Amino acid sequence: MSRSREPISRRSDGRYDVRVDPGVRAVLAAVATQVAGMLEHDRASTVRVFPPAYVGDDAEAAANERSYRELVDTALRAHHHEVLELVVTTAEHDTLSAEELGAWLSAVETMRLTLGTRLDVSEEMRTPHPSDPTAPEFAVYELLGAVQTAIVDALAAELPDDGRPEGAL
Question: Terminus-to-terminus CA distance in the chain, angstroms?
Answer without folding.
Answer: 16
